[in-house]
Amino acid sequence: MKKACIFDLDGTLTDTLDSLTFSVNATMRELSLKEITREECRNFVGDGARCLIERSLRACGDKDLVRIEEAMRIYGRIFKENCNYHVEPYDGVPQTLEELKNRGIYLAVLSNKPHLQTVDVVETFFGKGMFDRIQGQCEKFPRKPDPAAVRDILNKSHMKPEDCIYIGDSEVDMKTGKAAGVFTVGANWGFRCKELLEQNGADITIDHMGELLQLIST
User: Fold this and answer.
1) What is the pTM of this model?
2) What is the fold of 4-15+87-217?
3) In the structure, how many helices (H) and strands (E) does the chain have?
4) How would you list the strands of the sheet with 133-137, edge to edge?
5) What CATH number should be reported for the domain whose range is 17-82?
6) Which residue, 73, 63, 76, 2, is CA-closest to 33?
7) Beta-bridge partner residues of 106
8) Per-domain residue ranges for the chain?
9) Using CA atoms, how far apart are residues 189 and 212, in angstroms rounded to an integer?
10) Contacts of residue 25, Cβ cutoff 8 Å, sequence gap at least 6
11) What is the mean pLDDT, run by run of 10 residues, along the chain of 218 residues?
């Protein structure tokens, strides 16, 4: 039986695509650049805020990233104010988390979203006591797919890799879980397709959050 679950946030626990698209396009408007589409944003996310803005700038005409630092300052301000814009938990997520908590499973979030915004989203939608650890992107750890943050979560919770399930919706997440040596689950409801998750090392993919309850027991 598994003892811990580490979750990605965007595209796994919460549907944040509208908030990300809104903040990127508000940034592009301040820069007098064209906007990106929702589907472009879906493909650009997963590697942290800077990569999202770099990809967006290139798509909007700044091929050489001349305005990247200016864009990051603007995006940081706008996203801080709008990180919960139209955000919703995916179907079955709150109920499954509650059941996992009741079973005594250690729960953690690991996101490439900036740390303060990660905490804001998680505590807004799931409360302050649901997760044992919330970790967003910060200077202390390299961003995913580097497994350093997963290893730190395991070490500080006194867990072994074989005790843990890692759940995410992107190729970055699959690579993260595999690099950390934990059982890696692809969330088919998120920002990437099932085939891509499988190609990048998912041990299994699931179509609904509630399926985790069975995986935890095996």
Assistant:
1) 0.92
2) Rossmann fold (3.40.50)
3) 10, 8
4) 133-137, 106-114, 4-7, 164-168, 183-187, 204-206
5) 1.10.150.240
6) 63
7) 4
8) 4-15+87-217, 17-82
9) 13
10) 35, 36
11) 96 95 97 96 92 97 97 95 94 97 97 94 96 96 97 97 97 97 97 96 97 88
